[in-house]
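Researcher: Here's the sequence for the chain we discussed earlier.
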Amino acid sequence: MSKIKLAILGCSGRTGSKILSHGLLDDRIEIVGGLVSKNSRFLGNDLSVIVDHDKKTGILATSDLSLAIQNADVIIDFSSKEITNELIDNANEFLKNRKLIIGVTGFDEDFNEKLLNVSNNHVIFKSSNMSIGIGLICEFLKRYSRVLNDEYEIIINDIHHKNKKDSPSGTALMLKHSLEISNNAQNIQINSSRISDIKGIHEIMMIDECETISIRHDVSDRKIFAVNSLKIAHWIHKISRNGLYHMNDFLEFGAEV
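Model: Thanks. This is the structure I predict for it:
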């Protein structure tokens, strides 16, 4: 079986470096490109330097998007909204014969509409959280939140590290959207906190005068995002039908990869 040729955008970041580290250990994957910022201390270095890997890859970290993806057939993007927009705005060039996985968050509805249109001609996966646990919680909320009546107040506590740029997080908005799909809930409050180096804590509390239903998800290691991103890469590499795919698609069709 031929290896998946993978490019990682944002490969020196919190999650991108984890993906790089685990990708280098996956004998079904060949890392062929890594994008860093123009000011990165890793620019021009072998990708192995980023994760202290014991063998050189022969691939240098670059800030040139075209160069980073030129040999890839799957791209995992944990870079920035600016880079993701550049990919999507130039999809006919950058995504030709390539599959894209987007883990970047903080986009508005205009971007989401643009992404949906582009996906008519390309295979794209997007999730604000690569955790299977969050995916399962979202599916639970979509299915069962319809039983909550108007007497329930719903609170989403959203806690991340102090350097996270978007607030509320994409994960909190995913959870809110899942509640709204079947419940049409209007009374949903998101409380966002940015503290220390917390990887991600999300709690959904559904409260009425008689009971409190609480669902909580804690991430103790960003490894979970990397491992699942690579599982998604293996799955999406086999997909030939153009479209925009989400975590619920992976949970239903690809989670056993």
